[in-house]
Amino acid sequence: MNEDTSPLEQEFRTLMETVGEQIKGKVSEANRLLGEAVALAVEYGIPFNSNISQLGQNYVPASFRSKFPDVDAEVVEELTGVSTYRLDASADGWEESQLCY
Fold first, then answer.
1. How many Å apart are CA 50 and CA 99, to the nearest integer?
2. How far is CA 26 from the centre of its chain?
């Protein structure tokens, strides 16, 4: 241990080598599975709400409007949790948050 390194910092570094790698693996797996969910949404035109992040972002595939042009937005919201304001003609992909800007 470097003499400038506190015991708490050393504990953190040790945990990052073990638990940190586990966390990275779980995030990588979640990313892969989320990609599969997006692919299904695009293929079938089904929007979805993801609670993976605290932002709880919605995903609306570009194919949604062409596959389900006459489905009432309130029905879609009820079944998917995707807000009706996200289901307009311009909705395509992940919802953007003003918090990120």
1. 17
2. 14
CA distances from 52 to 25, 33, 38, 49, 98 (A): 15, 11, 13, 9, 18
Residue 52: burial class (beta carbons within 10 Å; 0-12, 13-18, 19+): middle
Tell me the C-alpha distance between 46 and 63, whole Å.
8
49 half-sphere exposure, CB direction, 13 A CA radius: 15
> What is the pLDDT at residue 8?
81
- State residue 101's pLDDT score: 45
Q: What is the mean pLDDT of each run of 10 residues along the chain (101 residues)?
A: 75 84 89 92 90 71 84 85 76 64 45
Q: How far apart are CA 60 and CA 101, in angstroms?
A: 21
Which pLDDT score, from 0 to 100, does residue 69 have?
Answer: 83
